[in-house]
Specification:
The complex is a heterodimer of chains A (about 325) and B (about 350).
Chain A (H helix, E strand, L loop, with lengths): L11 H29 L3 H4 L13 H7 E5 L2 H6 L6 H8 L2 E6 L2 H32 L5 H10 L9 H11 L5 H26 L3 H8 L4 H12 L1 H17 L2 H6 L7 H4 L4 E2 L2 E2 L1 H31 L6
Antiparallel strand pairs in A: 1-2, 3-4
Chain B lengths: L3 E10 L2 E11 L4 E5 L6 H9 L6 E6 L2 E2 L10 E4 L11 H11 L4 H14 L15 H13 L5 E5 L7 H18 L3 E5 L2 H7 L2 E6 L2 E6 L1 H6 L4 H6 L6 E4 L10 E4 L2 E4 L13 E4 L4 E4 L4 E10 L3 E8 L2 E8 L9 E6 L5 E3 L14
Parallel strand pairs in B: 3-8, 3-9, 6-7, 7-8
Antiparallel strand pairs in B: 1-2, 1-4, 4-5, 9-10, 11-14, 12-13, 14-20, 15-19, 16-17, 16-19, 17-18
The chains are: A mainly alpha (about 325), B alpha+beta (about 350).
Chain lengths: ~325, ~350
């Protein structure tokens, strides 16, 4: 009998099989993302060439186009200008154009940042307070309230777009940062309450009781003892909320035009000469991907612990 | 440090009454143990003293002050939890200084107090360790330290040794007792383990079904239990009971069981109940050839210094604690007889022990 390995340990064949499946899955999911990143480094012509170019000469044209507005000029006019001051001016002039000013991208991008992080913070903060109350206090009609909270997610949020549009117009919340933060918070809150309640239930109430004995009020105990221990849950919830509000498209199209427009409705409208400017769109989506990626990587340590949290009692 | 007094304390959760009309005075500097089976209300009583539960009715005095409705943070007591509840995101030093930070002590004073407590509990070498790296015993010491640093009016402990293994529990028991002698703090300690209670307590209160049945010194609780429950709960094995279907009259001093007359302590109370029982501890019984209750040996347990012999009689199994030299075989016919006058008659209606020459 083979006694060299434990029965609980998977065989080398199943390990290899698992690795193969993971690799294949990773490659499949990475193809669109790597294609998007590749497109962002192509030039306008190679982006739409057929057959598609896998190997190409990288160019920053997409990124330059993303951040600038340009206009086409005659060769004589270009010749009459002083020599270009930097590399991106040179790049634009080689396409017989001049830079007329910065594009709206940076503004839209920072709108996305403000609204995304703002609503994530609000959802997690309010969600944590509500989850704590549901977890610890004898709330009348607790189960019904929890069901009611969850029921707000039982229809697609866009189904109530028209009433929200009218309400927002009456309230003056249309096309404002505050309005979008409130909207995304409302949509995310039910998820946050339910996720965080599970995590709060896992934290023994003795911790905050100990803190209250030590002279702290319940609210102080909540912030100093409960929240730090709910970090895993908070991280997981924050990532989900962030991904939703960062990527949300339909309400952003409907409710924002100028002041508070986020990046998702803006990026697809980047139009170059004679059609969509694919490298610029690629560059926009690549840059758009980065914050969520960085956010997730930072919180990943907590997230992984969060998945196995509660599986083994200490 | 101060006295703790509870008066007519009651706690209900919905229809369920966890603590019924309890009265208790815990003296200053006393090590007081609340003992009882699980669900008897001992932890609820402790949590009410701590302020973690509010009483349904009744008063709690901490020293002179009535604190029944005050929040836990306003009571100046320390609580040691069964699972310690050390803050896992802080190291040992921060755990110890956490209660002091709230009270607004300055940095150097906190440092002195933490070091003092750490030295007393011999945890000064692990002050910078994280909680998760500590052994059970060290966690226990840190939990005690966190209670100690504040120098509260009273220490409340909820089965603090419950999670430790047997060997370690004995050691911590000794340390706890020594600590109590060193700092002389009023301590209320909850446990379901009678050995822990016996070895630690100045006084014990035995609880069952939300009621305090008896509160007294360990020896009194053991030898002169106030009710049948106390008699059976305390002692290992517990007291033997023989059902006697006869009443007890005043000044009665013999009892006829199965045609044999047994001497009992002179009784001072009358009981007309037909369900009275005759209670005697295993060590007060001996095996004899005649003049006792007839039975046959059912089992022999060897305990090192003593033997416990279980005898099957018409009144059920009776346990006898005998000398190691006693040798009997299984199924051998023997007779069981009281070897002294430490006999208690329990009233069949109230389960209370009747007053007698012995139970005075």
């Amino acid at each position: 009998m083979d006694t060299s390995r434990s029965y609980l340990e998977p065989s080398s064949f199943s390990k290899k099989l698992a690795a193969t499946i993971i690799i294949v899955y990773t490659v499949i999911t990475l193809i669109p993302i790597s294609w998007m990143v590749m497109t962002s480094f192509k030039n306008v012509n190679s982006a739409i060439s057929y057959p598609p170019e896998v190997f190409f000469e990288p160019s920053l044209e997409g990124y330059v186009n993303l951040f600038t507005n340009r206009s086409r000029q005659s060769q004589e006019y270009l010749d009459s200008l002083p020599p270009p001051e930097n590399w991106y001016e040179e790049l634009v002039r080689s396409r017989e154009m001049v830079i007329t000013g910065p594009s709206k991208f940076l503004g839209r991008y920072s709108n996305s940042m403000i609204i995304g992080f703002g609503s994530t913070f609000a959802s997690v903060f309010l969600g944590a307070l509500a989850a704590y109350a549901f977890s610890r206090f004898r709330v009348p009609l607790k189960d019904d309230l929890l069901f009611f909270i969850l029921s707000t997610r039982m229809f697609p949020p866009i189904a109530v777009a028209v009433p929200i549009f009218i309400m927002y117009r009456k309230l003056g919340l249309g096309d404002t940062h505050l309005g979008m933060i409130i909207l995304y918070t409302v949509v995310n809150l039910s998820l946050a309450v339910w996720l965080l309640k599970g995590f709060m239930d896992e934290i023994p109430k003795e911790y905050e009781e100990a803190a209250m004995i030590d002279g702290y009020s319940r609210l102080q105990a909540f912030f100093k003892v409960v929240l730090p221990q709910a970090m895993t849950g908070i991280a997981a919830t924050a990532i989900f909320c962030m991904i939703f509000s960062w990527n949300e498209y339909a309400f952003a199209v409907l409710l924002t035009q100028f002041n508070a427009q986020t990046a998702p409705p803006f990026i697809p409208t980047i139009i170059g000469e004679g059609g969509l400017d694919w490298p610029a769109i690629g560059a926009g989506t690549t840059l758009f991907l980065l914050p969520v990626m960085i956010f997730t990587i930072i919180l990943r340590k907590h997230l992984l612990r969060g998945i196995t949290f509660g599986a083994v009692r200490k | 440090m101060s006295q703790i007094k509870i008066a007519n304390l009651q706690k209900s959760f919905g229809d369920f009454t966890a603590v019924k009309n309890s009265n208790l005075t815990i003296n200053d500097k006393e090590f007081f143990v609340l003992l009882g089976p699980s669900g008897c209300g001992k932890t609820t009583t402790l949590r009410m003293i701590a302020g973690l539960e509010l009483p349904t009715s009744g008063e709690i005095y901490l020293g002179e002050e009535e604190v029944g409705m005050l929040r836990a943070s306003e009571r100046d007591i320390a609580f040691v939890f069964q699972l310690f509840a050390l803050y896992p995101h802080m190291n040992v030093k921060n755990n110890l200084s956490f209660p002091l930070k709230m009270q607004g002590y300055n940095r150097s004073e906190i440092k002195t107090r933490v070091e003092e407590a750490a030295k007393l509990l011999r945890i000064d070498h692990i002050l910078n360790s994280s909680i998760s790296s500590l052994s059970g015993g060290d966690r226990q010491r840190v939990a005690l330290g966190r209670a100690l640093v504040r120098r509260p009016k009273a220490f409340l402990m909820d089965e603090p040794l419950g999670t430790l293994d047997a060997e370690f529990r004995e050691l911590m028991c000794l340390e706890l007792k020594k600590l109590h002698i060193d700092i002389g703090a009023t301590t209320v300690y909850v446990t379901h383990d009678q050995l822990e209670a016996m070895s630690l307590a100045d006084r014990i209160a035995v609880m069952d079904g939300g009621e305090i049945l008896q509160a007294d010194e360990p020896a009194v609780i053991y030898n002169k239990p106030a009710t049948k429950f106390v008699a059976s709960f305390i002692g290992s094995p517990g007291m033997n009971f023989i059902n006697i279907d006869q009443g007890i009259s005043n000044e009665q001093s013999t009892l006829n069981i199965e045609g044999t007359d047994f001497n009992i302590p002179k009784q001072y109370e009358i009981s007309k109940s037909k369900k009275n029982s005759f209670g005697i501890r295993p060590e007060n019984l001996s095996l004899t050839n005649e003049g006792g209750l007839k039975g046959s040996v059912f089992g022999v347990e060897y305990l090192g210094s003593r033997k416990i012999i279980t005898v099957k009689t018409n009144f059920g199994e009776i346990k006898v604690k005998t000398n190691i030299s006693t040798s009997v075989k299984i199924n051998e016919n023997v007779q069981v007889k009281p070897s002294n006058n430490n006999i208690i008659i329990f009233d069949g209606e109230t389960d209370r022990s009747l007053k007698s020459e012995f139970m005075n």
